[in-house]
């Protein structure tokens, strides 16, 4: 086999106006020659070190894909079958990580496998099947698994929990699953996704598993947990973090309330409800809630029953000054992550497996966290106030 590098032909191609890269680019043929030359050197080195009577045994040809198009690569073989090339691994079919990186980048922006295949072919002139693209995106899974067990910080001033629902195939049928995002605000005021958990139904047992996982990964204390009306959560968190205060999300409570209010009255009811949750003190809020119930209670009793039953956890934020209230007032801080999730999954409908969804959500988390370079607004004042309200619990974290 001739392994001389025809640089002169490469130069002629460039002078003739042929592009360097891309489909049918001049680099394509040069890469083939360089790779085959390296393989030849590899097998010669292997045979020199082999003390048996091993020798060359022809070539095996396989189709390689690179950012410069496809080409047929002749890989040398040895008689004993002990030669394992390094430059091109046994099952390797691509010559560069550039294509895989491009596939992952397109995937991270919510493109379907069909869209990715079309774009890759347009850019590189290389055809990829949906199965091949799935294999590339499966490389996210080990990254996801490593991320899920990484150590966490010892103290989080705020933790937010919220759910987003998807249809996932299980036992030949599609079922609705809740995927819970756990977002923490660190002592430095920066946001961090602590975990992503899924379950068919929420409850104390499930939440105990989540909180135990956080504890096992190093979380010793949570000051305030802001959550939707999660069944069983207050009981679960008190068993793992007995000193944590639980604030139910006001925005979720408002939304749930308006579902039971007639459409003709929703605007007026929502306006009057503001006087409750935007009150300056808990006492003032309770007075406004009494007034609201006196006016609307007979018409919408289920709404006020819900507010009364949850009032202890809905009203936690009233005890804090404005800066702390702004952080725990709603779960909007976590809903921005879920908006990223919805952007990525809006064209998907249902998912064939948990992993197919999780790897996409993981990419959404990576996208969101790239933007979290600054602490929450007015964080210095907020953390100072927290240190006073939660006397001693932030001392080690703040080196006080």
From TrEMBL:
Cross-referenced PROSITE patterns: TRANSPOSASE_MUTATOR
Stored InterPro entries: Transposase_mutator
GO process terms (BP): DNA transposition
Domain of life per record: Bacteria
Protein keywords: DNA recombination, DNA-binding, Transposable element, Transposition
Entry-linked Pfam families: Transposase_mut (PF00872)
GO molecular function terms attached to this record: DNA binding; transposase activity
Function: Required for the transposition of the insertion element.
Record-stated family: Belongs to the transposase mutator family.
Protein name (Swiss-Prot/TrEMBL): Mutator family transposase
Species this chain originates from: Sulfurimonas autotrophica (strain ATCC BAA-671 / DSM 16294 / JCM 11897 / OK10)
């Amino acid at each position: 086999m001739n392994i001389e590098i025809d640089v002169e032909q490469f130069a002629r191609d460039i002078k003739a106006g042929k592009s360097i890269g891309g489909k049918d680019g001049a680099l394509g043929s040069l890469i083939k020659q360089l790779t085959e030359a390296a393989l030849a050197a590899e097998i010669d080195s292997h045979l020199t070190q082999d003390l048996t009577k091993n020798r060359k045994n022809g070539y095996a040809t396989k189709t390689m894909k690179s950012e410069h198009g496809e080409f047929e690569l002749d890989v040398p073989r040895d008689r004993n079958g002990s030669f394992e090339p390094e430059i091109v691994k046994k099952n390797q079919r691509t010559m560069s990580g550039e294509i895989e990186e491009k596939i992952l980048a397109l995937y991270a922006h919510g493109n379907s496998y069909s869209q990715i295949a079309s774009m890759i072919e347009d850019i590189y002139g290389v055809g990829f099947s949906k199965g091949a693209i799935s294999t590339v995106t499966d490389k996210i899974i080990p990254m996801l698994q490593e991320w899920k067990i990484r150590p966490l910080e010892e103290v989080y001033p705020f933790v937010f929990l919220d759910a987003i629902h998807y249809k996932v195939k299980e036992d030949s049928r599609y079922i609705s699953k809740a995927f819970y995002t756990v977002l923490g605000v660190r002592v430095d005021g920066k946001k961090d996704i602590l975990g992503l958990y899924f379950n068919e139904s929420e409850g104390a047992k499930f939440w105990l598993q989540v909180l135990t996982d956080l504890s096992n990964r190093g979380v010793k204390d949570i000051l305030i947990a802001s959550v939707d009306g999660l069944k069983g959560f207050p009981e679960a968190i008190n068993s793992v973090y007995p000193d944590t205060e639980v604030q139910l999300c006001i925005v979720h409570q408002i939304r749930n309330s308006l579902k039971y209010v007639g459409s003709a009255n929703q605007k007026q009811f929502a306006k009057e409800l503001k006087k409750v949750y935007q009150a300056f003190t808990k006492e003032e809020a309770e007075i406004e809630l009494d007034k609201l119930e006196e006016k609307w209670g007979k018409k919408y009793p289920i709404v006020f029953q819900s507010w009364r039953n949850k009032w202890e956890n809905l009203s936690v934020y009233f005890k804090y000054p404005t800066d702390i209230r702004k952080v725990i007032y709603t779960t909007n801080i976590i809903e921005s992550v879920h908006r990223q999730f919805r952007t990525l999954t809006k064209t998907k409908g249902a998912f064939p497996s948990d992993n197919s969804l999780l790897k996409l959500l993981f990419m959404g988390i990576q996208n969101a966290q790239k933007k979290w370079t600054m602490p929450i607004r007015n964080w210095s004042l907020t953390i100072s106030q927290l240190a006073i309200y939660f006397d001693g619990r932030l001392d080690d974290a703040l080196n006080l």
